[in-house]
Amino acid sequence: MKPAALVQQIALLLGKPWKYNFLAETDWRYEIIDGKGRRLFLRPEQDRLRISGHFPPKTTSSYYRKCKSITVSMQRPAQAIAADIARRLMPDYLAAYDQAVEQCKIEQADAARRQQITLLLMKVTNGSSYGWKRA
Predict the structure, then answer these.
(1) Which residues contact 21 (CB under 8 A, 6 or more apart)?
(2) What is the pTM of this model?
(3) How far is residue 42's CA from residue 53's CA, in Å, rounded to a whole number?
(4) Taking 80 as the threshold, does the pLDDT of residue 134 lie above it?
(5) What angle do CA 53, 59, 60 make, to 5 degrees?
(6) Sheet containing 69-73, strands listed edge to edge, beginning at the edge strand earlier in sequence
(7) Are 101 and 113 in contact (CB under 8 A)?
(8) Cα separation of 19 and 36, whole Å?
(9) Are 47 and 73 in contact (CB under 8 A)?
(10) Which end of the chain has the smaller Cβ count within 10 Å, N or C?
(11) 36 pLDDT band (50/70/90 cuts)?
(12) Rounded to whole angstroms, how far apart are CA atoms 69 and 45?
């Protein structure tokens, strides 16, 4: 079976909200998405399929992007592969994704606060910096 057809069956077997992303199909990588920003990347490697979770850089913290991935044989039926994904990858990925989103919100709020402090300092000092020469 071709990898694209296998991945399409896996997406159907994972159930809602997961679906196959036809727009991202390439010869070397396939995607299963859930519509909330979460994605699974499936990459054929000879007779195996490497499956990993994706963490979008603008909505998740980089700390969590190293979530584990799993490898399964492409000779196995799609139902067995989908069960493996649900059992071995999904719990870790979904928990890591939620933590990464929360951490990203904290990082963005902290960056916004630092930006406000910088703007206030610029206003108070009229845009000049205090160096050792002015001390």
Answers:
(1) 30, 31, 32, 33, 39
(2) 0.78
(3) 9
(4) no
(5) 50
(6) 19-20, 30-33, 39-45, 48-54, 69-73
(7) no
(8) 12
(9) yes
(10) C
(11) confident
(12) 13
Question: Dihedral sign, CA of 84, 1, 67, 102?
Answer: negative
For the cut 90, the answer to whether the pLDDT of residue 123 exceeds it is no
Which pair of tokens denotes residue 82? Answer: 């989908």
Whole-number Å distance between alpha carbons of 111 and 105? 10
What is the DSSP code (8-state) at residue 49? Answer: E
**Rounded to 10 degrees, what is the CA torsion of 29, 54, 47, 6?**
-70
Q: Which two tokens stand for residue 69?
A: 């991935």
One-letter identity of residue 81: I
Cα(37)–Cα(67) distance, integer angstroms:
16
Spatial separation of the C-alpha atoms in residues 52 and 72, rounded to whole Å: 11
Burial class (CB within 10 angstroms; exposed 0-12, middle 13-18, buried 19+) of 11 = buried
